[in-house]
Design a protein that fits this description.
Radius of gyration: 23 Å
Number of helices: 16
Oligomer: single chain
């Protein structure tokens, strides 16, 4: 986007029509929006350097506006504290300090810190207060290739995924480019008619659409949103669906095996139960690391791969805007029936649930989502043993992480750090 703005300025063209506002629009400096509290990092750049090189501060956690990353992370922590407060207070009390995990990215780490403040309170981290009264400890997991399967970011460690230029990491961009070519030329023609002196590429038009969301996060509103029609936005939404579906989701041959790492580790914890493993586990990652998990679970299946020659029907299950929005999350709940109860999740039919039976329920962004082939328990949950069988079957189907990713025999094969 910065390159586009520089090109417009260098062209000495006064934009008209839908883009007229750009003549006076100022790219927002991120100097006031970088997350500072609770950080162990230090930012040595001056206020002037923030303004002169804003690209150096992209991908940071925003701190202003009604949709600020800091606010949404803190609010999420508070919401989940309300929902799961009993897990913090029932006897016997959980083991403290509670271990939390975050991948080694400043934005992800800051998100974890603000979340923990909402969930546990201001004094959760002894390192900030220099006391021994910590209620939690945040562990940073490197995003480096040498981690192998012992990682929160398998896209960085799966060697073949990074190297395969046809069906690996870049496959999403390839498919995105194909779909963009079905709707962006019409937008280009509209702008060209209004501004004959400058022509925009597909990439530049797409960045304009992205800017709408980015600026809303920082400022609360954006004139870029008014540049495009409702149809343009429906196409942009689907373009994001295509990108993530083929980059690391069900449409990428590496997606499910990358997601199987976290799924397998979590299944083991759920199998052991809260008394042996612990009650609460929180991992903080990028949206691109949640998507492989969904692929491993086959949670939002499509009858056919997403088309790139036209937009899929609005009834499609795979919607990135709903699956991995900003501050998106997926929660695995282990439920236990303390007394014989009735399950009416299947079309109103009554099913008796034995006391003491365990179930797994999946919550995606505050909505319960039943597994496609296992949702017979209370509230669209899956009986624990059936869930574990499903996970084992998926592991056999997607393959061994080290083998599929082309790692050496001695490379770590699984996640080992998830424990309380």
């Amino acid at each position: 986007m910065l390159a586009l703005l520089q090109r417009i300025k260098a062209s000495n063209v006064t934009l008209k029509g839908d883009l007229e506002f750009v003549n006076d629009w100022q790219y927002f400096s991120l100097s006031a929006f970088i997350s500072q509290p609770f950080s162990r990092l230090r930012y040595f750049l001056t206020q002037a350097s923030f303004a002169s090189e804003p690209s150096a501060h992209h991908d940071q956690l925003t701190t202003t506006g009604p949709y600020a990353g800091t606010l949404s992370a803190f609010a999420a922590g508070t919401k989940l504290r309300t929902r799961y407060f009993s897990l913090l207070t029932i006897s016997p009390l959980p083991h403290f300090p509670l271990n939390l995990w975050a991948s080694d990215c400043t934005r992800v780490i800051e998100t974890a810190r603000y979340f923990a403040t909402g969930f546990l309170g201001l004094d959760w981290d002894s390192s900030s207060l220099k006391t021994a009264a910590a209620t939690a400890q945040l562990h940073i997991i490197p995003e480096t290739p040498d981690r192998g399967g012992d990682t929160l970011t398998p896209g960085d460690t799966c060697l073949k995924y990074r190297q395969d230029m046809q069906t690996g990491h870049d496959y999403g961009l390839v498919q995105l480019s194909k779909f963009r070519s079905t709707y962006l030329p019409a937008i280009a023609a509209r702008f060209q008619a209004q501004n004959p002196g400058i022509r925009f590429t597909d990439g530049e038009l797409y960045s304009m659409q992205e800017m709408c969301g980015f600026e809303i996060l920082v400022r609360g509103s954006s004139p870029w949103c008014d540049v495009f029609t409702q149809e343009d936005w429906l196409n942009f939404e689907y373009a994001r669906d295509v990108l993530h579906y083929y980059r690391a989701g069900p449409g990428n041959r590496f997606g499910p095996v990358m997601g199987s790492l976290w799924l397998n580790a979590t299944a083991e914890l759920l199998k052991k139960g809260p008394e042996a493993a612990g009650r609460l586990f929180f991992s903080f990652v990028h949206d691109g690391d949640i998507i492989p998990l969904l692929a491993a679970l086959d949670l939002f299946p499509t009858v056919e791969p997403l088309p790139v020659t036209h937009r899929a029907p609005s009834s499609r299950a795979w919607r990135t805007s709903q699956i991995v929005p900003m501050n998106g999350r997926i929660i695995f709940e282990r439920l236990t029936c303390n007394s014989t109860s009735r399950n009416t999740s299947k079309g109103g039919a009554v099913h008796h649930v034995p006391a003491g039976e365990h179930f797994i329920r999946i919550n995606v962004n505050d909505g319960i989502v039943g597994l496609p082939i296992c949702a017979s328990g209370p509230g669209f949950s899956c009986p624990l043993e059936e869930f574990l069988t499903l996970v084992r079957r998926r592991e056999e189907e997607v393959g061994d992480f080290r083998t599929v990713c082309g790692l050496k025999a001695g490379a770590p094969a699984k996640i080992t750090f998830l424990h309380q």
